[in-house]
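I would like you to sit down with the pair of lines that follows and say whether tokens and residues agree.
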Amino acid sequence: MTDLALPRFPRLIDRIAGRLPTLPLDLALRRFVGSLADRHPSLFSRLGEHAGKRFLIEPTDLSFAFLLAPDPAMPRLEAVKRDASGTIPVAHDARIAGPLAALIGMVHGALDGDALFFSRDIVIEGDTEAVLALRNAVDDAEIDLPAEIAVMTGPAAGTVAAMLKAMRPLAERLTGVALGRPGETA
């Protein structure tokens, strides 16, 4: 394990969310990935030959995963539920699995992906070269998920960003999850 005790997503909330249809989440994810592509155009284009790959991003503490198809012309991100056996029944070229806290921490640059991999907190399967390209693209884009979410709210973006920024310290203390890039405080 890493030096950090990675928090797990609350089981009760996951059970409730796991029973809901994925359509509302898929619509939000479609908007999110489109906004991300608009704000960070090199994110998907720098994947080169790996842009046609399908990445299964599997939070091990959720009842669903995310399938990313990073085609720069039309990137897609969708939720995929686990089947009765607990597996994610979707074709993919590479799989990145670990607790949601670890996956979010890597996106924000708060956790070291290599350390998480070698401590077995995350698992990489399939096309590891494609995963490395994706990781480098995400690292270079310096994505801040709350900022990206705020932008999606349109005219309310400034207000939403300020609310998220103000709530971040308490939310991080309560969840143990890095909810923004290191060094950015309220």
Observations:
- The longest strand covers residues 64-69.
- Residues 157-175 form the longest helix (19 residues).
- The chain has eight helices and five strands.
- The radius of gyration is 16 Å.
